[in-house]
Design a protein that fits this description.
Length: about 160
Protein backbone atom coordinates (compact mmCIF):
# COMPACT_ATOMS: atom_id res chain seq x y z
CA UNK A 1 0.00 0.00 0.00
CA UNK A 2 1.27 3.49 -0.83
CA UNK A 3 2.14 5.66 2.14
CA UNK A 4 0.03 8.72 1.65
CA UNK A 5 1.32 12.10 2.76
CA UNK A 6 -1.14 13.58 5.26
CA UNK A 7 -2.13 17.12 6.20
CA UNK A 8 -3.36 18.36 9.47
CA UNK A 9 -3.48 22.12 9.77
CA UNK A 10 -3.40 23.91 13.12
CA UNK A 11 -6.97 24.13 14.33
CA UNK A 12 -8.64 22.64 11.25
CA UNK A 13 -7.85 20.24 8.47
CA UNK A 14 -8.44 21.02 4.81
CA UNK A 15 -10.99 18.72 3.26
CA UNK A 16 -9.00 18.17 0.06
CA UNK A 17 -5.84 17.61 2.05
CA UNK A 18 -7.55 15.15 4.37
CA UNK A 19 -8.59 13.12 1.34
CA UNK A 20 -4.92 12.93 0.38
CA UNK A 21 -3.95 11.76 3.86
CA UNK A 22 -1.29 14.51 4.20
CA UNK A 23 -0.20 15.73 7.64
CA UNK A 24 1.16 19.24 8.15
CA UNK A 25 1.47 19.84 11.89
CA UNK A 26 2.30 23.44 12.75
CA UNK A 27 3.95 24.93 15.78
CA UNK A 28 3.43 28.14 17.70
CA UNK A 29 5.97 30.96 17.63
CA UNK A 30 6.91 31.03 21.28
CA UNK A 31 4.60 30.38 24.23
CA UNK A 32 2.06 33.16 23.69
CA UNK A 33 -1.16 31.81 22.18
CA UNK A 34 -1.43 34.80 19.85
CA UNK A 35 1.91 33.96 18.17
CA UNK A 36 0.54 31.35 15.81
CA UNK A 37 0.69 30.45 12.16
CA UNK A 38 -1.19 28.06 9.93
CA UNK A 39 -0.11 25.94 6.99
CA UNK A 40 -2.30 24.86 4.09
CA UNK A 41 -1.31 22.55 1.28
CA UNK A 42 -2.45 22.20 -2.32
CA UNK A 43 -1.25 19.21 -4.36
CA UNK A 44 -1.43 19.19 -8.15
CA UNK A 45 -0.58 16.77 -10.94
CA UNK A 46 0.07 18.52 -14.24
CA UNK A 47 -1.73 21.60 -12.94
CA UNK A 48 -4.85 19.65 -11.88
CA UNK A 49 -5.80 19.48 -8.19
CA UNK A 50 -5.27 16.05 -6.63
CA UNK A 51 -8.05 14.89 -4.32
CA UNK A 52 -7.21 11.21 -3.76
CA UNK A 53 -4.25 9.08 -2.67
CA UNK A 54 -0.89 9.86 -4.24
CA UNK A 55 0.62 7.32 -6.63
CA UNK A 56 3.99 5.74 -5.81
CA UNK A 57 7.13 7.05 -7.53
CA UNK A 58 5.25 9.98 -9.08
CA UNK A 59 6.11 13.70 -9.05
CA UNK A 60 3.50 16.21 -7.90
CA UNK A 61 3.39 19.95 -7.39
CA UNK A 62 3.12 20.89 -3.70
CA UNK A 63 2.16 24.45 -2.68
CA UNK A 64 2.51 25.23 1.02
CA UNK A 65 0.91 28.49 2.23
CA UNK A 66 2.19 29.70 5.61
CA UNK A 67 -0.01 32.39 7.17
CA UNK A 68 1.12 34.49 10.12
CA UNK A 69 -1.73 34.96 12.63
CA UNK A 70 -3.41 38.36 12.43
CA UNK A 71 -2.82 38.92 16.17
CA UNK A 72 0.84 37.84 16.11
CA UNK A 73 3.05 40.62 17.49
CA UNK A 74 5.91 39.89 15.08
CA UNK A 75 6.67 39.06 11.46
CA UNK A 76 8.34 35.73 10.82
CA UNK A 77 11.54 35.66 8.82
CA UNK A 78 12.41 31.99 8.38
CA UNK A 79 10.71 28.62 8.17
CA UNK A 80 11.55 24.94 7.79
CA UNK A 81 9.36 22.25 6.25
CA UNK A 82 10.74 18.76 6.92
CA UNK A 83 10.44 16.42 3.93
CA UNK A 84 9.32 12.95 5.14
CA UNK A 85 11.60 9.96 4.65
CA UNK A 86 11.30 8.52 1.16
CA UNK A 87 9.95 11.71 -0.42
CA UNK A 88 12.18 13.88 -2.61
CA UNK A 89 11.62 17.61 -3.07
CA UNK A 90 13.27 19.77 -5.71
CA UNK A 91 12.89 23.03 -7.66
CA UNK A 92 11.60 24.96 -4.64
CA UNK A 93 10.41 28.52 -5.13
CA UNK A 94 8.55 31.30 -3.37
CA UNK A 95 5.35 31.58 -5.41
CA UNK A 96 3.73 34.47 -3.53
CA UNK A 97 4.74 36.65 -0.58
CA UNK A 98 7.49 39.09 0.33
CA UNK A 99 10.09 39.35 -2.45
CA UNK A 100 12.95 39.23 0.06
CA UNK A 101 12.51 35.49 0.73
CA UNK A 102 14.41 32.65 -0.88
CA UNK A 103 13.78 28.91 -0.57
CA UNK A 104 16.24 26.04 -0.89
CA UNK A 105 16.29 22.29 -0.27
CA UNK A 106 18.79 21.72 2.52
CA UNK A 107 19.16 17.99 3.16
CA UNK A 108 15.63 16.81 3.89
CA UNK A 109 14.30 20.30 4.65
CA UNK A 110 12.71 23.06 2.59
CA UNK A 111 14.45 26.06 4.16
CA UNK A 112 12.86 29.50 3.76
CA UNK A 113 14.89 32.57 4.69
CA UNK A 114 14.20 36.29 4.51
CA UNK A 115 17.12 38.27 3.11
CA UNK A 116 15.52 41.61 3.97
CA UNK A 117 15.95 43.56 7.20
CA UNK A 118 14.70 42.11 10.50
CA UNK A 119 10.95 42.57 10.79
CA UNK A 120 10.41 42.66 7.02
CA UNK A 121 9.25 39.07 6.80
CA UNK A 122 5.72 37.70 6.73
CA UNK A 123 3.93 40.36 8.78
CA UNK A 124 0.94 39.54 11.00
CA UNK A 125 -2.16 38.74 8.96
CA UNK A 126 -0.22 37.99 5.75
CA UNK A 127 0.97 34.82 4.04
CA UNK A 128 3.68 33.36 1.86
CA UNK A 129 3.30 30.44 -0.55
CA UNK A 130 6.16 28.04 -1.27
CA UNK A 131 6.16 25.53 -4.11
CA UNK A 132 8.22 22.44 -4.84
CA UNK A 133 8.11 19.37 -7.04
CA UNK A 134 7.76 16.37 -4.74
CA UNK A 135 8.33 12.75 -5.79
CA UNK A 136 6.63 10.09 -3.70
CA UNK A 137 8.47 6.95 -2.59
CA UNK A 138 8.37 3.75 -4.63
CA UNK A 139 5.53 1.39 -3.68
CA UNK A 140 7.85 -1.09 -1.96
CA UNK A 141 9.28 1.70 0.23
CA UNK A 142 5.88 2.97 1.35
CA UNK A 143 4.23 2.31 4.66
CA UNK A 144 0.55 2.27 5.56
CA UNK A 145 0.95 5.26 7.88
CA UNK A 146 0.67 8.83 6.58
CA UNK A 147 3.80 10.89 5.99
CA UNK A 148 4.18 13.91 8.28
CA UNK A 149 5.40 17.28 6.96
CA UNK A 150 6.61 19.05 10.11
CA UNK A 151 6.63 22.83 9.76
CA UNK A 152 8.32 25.39 12.00
CA UNK A 153 8.65 29.16 11.66
CA UNK A 154 10.82 31.67 13.48
CA UNK A 155 10.45 35.42 13.78
CA UNK A 156 14.09 36.18 12.93
CA UNK A 157 15.71 36.01 9.48
CA UNK A 158 18.07 33.24 10.65
CA UNK A 159 16.61 29.86 11.67
CA UNK A 160 19.79 28.85 13.52
CA UNK A 161 19.35 31.14 16.53
Amino acid sequence: MMRRPSAMVTGAALSSVVALGLVLPTSALGDAPKKTFTVTLAVTDGGVAVTGPLAPAHTYGFAFTLTNGAKSPQAFGSAHIAVPTGYQADTPAVAAGPATFHLVVSGSTLALTNSGPTGSGVVPGSAITLTAHVTTPAADACQATPATWTTQVKQSNDFSG
